[in-house]
Task: inverse folding
């Protein structure tokens, strides 16, 4: 029990540095939802149900342009395909949790929650925490900050000056996580290849540049590792 | 098409679909043994997905051109060095945001 509480709190505490970066994204999603004519509760319901900002913004934009329901939903789902990769990567760490609990963990899985947790689990002392509860602490803190942002965004608008560029905290968070994850030549090559492909494929619709970059990195890293193992 | 009823429909369908994507592997993980190739590929997911998010965000988005356009790339380079030296998420974010604000003020 103590172990559970300790792990939960330690996850929530570790996520404090990135929470400030979560609020502006919530603000934007809330404000855009309200701007599209939703009530405060409508905007919150929309945010909570989907809980993935990039796809929410894309869906709202398409609806504004009178796209069909199928196009709106499919576009959002394609943008969210990256969650398959997070799910596969984090799942082995969450398997001790009973099924209903795992459904909750799946629901609050976000880019940031994935990044922060996998960074902790891959550390040498990664097995010292109760992983599902550590993940719950991280993901819940992030979800709450994002929701607070959405409430303010939908009610009073985006009050943080855009010049502060607080959204830049998001790529900085991922930088802080990915640098220690590059441990050997295969992971370094995977990272460089993924970044390069994503750069050149940025013009692809539906965020597919991200998927193309990630898939290239994963396959190349795997291939290089196999080759090195054979030599 | 943009009447409020449709927002709810999108919220429900996109929300449910996204949940199923997120939950997929977390749901089956204790019932299915992943093939060895898949297990080996899992290790490369963080090292691949995150750079694929970072690189366009730093080099292509949020840059208005001109010398201010250098602020994000330089701040990100500082953050990479700091992350490598300190391995601290807090210090990395603070140094990156600090560099960004300094450059924006002086460029």
Result:
């Amino acid at each position: 029990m103590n172990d559970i509480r300790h792990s939960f709190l330690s996850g929530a505490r570790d996520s404090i540095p990135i929470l400030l970066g979560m609020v502006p994204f919530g603000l934007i999603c809330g404000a855009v939802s309200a701007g599209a004519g939703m009530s405060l509760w409508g905007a919150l319901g929309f945010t909570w149900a989907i809980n993935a900002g990039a796809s929410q913004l894309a869906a709202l934009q398409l609806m504004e342009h009178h796209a069909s329901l199928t196009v709106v939903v499919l576009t959002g789902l394609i943008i969210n395909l990256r969650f398959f990769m997070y799910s596969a990567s984090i799942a082995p760490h969450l398997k001790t949790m009973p099924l209903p609990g795992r459904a909750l963990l799946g629901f609050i899985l976000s880019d940031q929650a994935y990044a922060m947790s996998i960074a902790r689990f891959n550390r040498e002392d990664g097995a010292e925490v109760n992983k599902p509860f550590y993940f719950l602490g991280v993901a819940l803190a992030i979800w709450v900050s994002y929701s607070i942002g959405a409430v303010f965004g939908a009610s009073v608008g985006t009050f943080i000056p855009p010049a502060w560029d607080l959204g830049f905290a998001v790529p900085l968070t991922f930088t802080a996580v990915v640098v220690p994850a590059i441990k050997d030549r295969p992971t370094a090559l995977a990272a460089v290849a993924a970044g390069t492909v994503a750069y050149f494929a940025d013009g692809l619709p539906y965020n597919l540049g991200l998927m193309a970059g990630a898939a290239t990195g994963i396959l190349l890293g795997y291939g290089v590792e196999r080759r090195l193992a054979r030599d | 098409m943009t009447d409020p009823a449709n927002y709810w429909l999108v919220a429900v369908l996109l929300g449910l679909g996204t949940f199923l994507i997120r939950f997929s592997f977390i749901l089956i993980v204790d019932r299915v043994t992943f093939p060895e190739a898949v297990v080996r590929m899992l290790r490369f997911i963080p090292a691949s997905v995150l750079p694929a998010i970072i690189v366009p965000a730093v080099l292509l988005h949020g840059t208005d051109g001109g010398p201010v356009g250098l602020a994000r790339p330089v701040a990100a380079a500082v953050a990479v060095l700091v992350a490598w030296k300190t391995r601290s998420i807090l210090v990395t974010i603070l140094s990156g945001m600090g560099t960004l604000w300094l450059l924006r003020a002086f460029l």
Observations:
- Chain A touches chain B through 104 residues (CB under 8 Å).
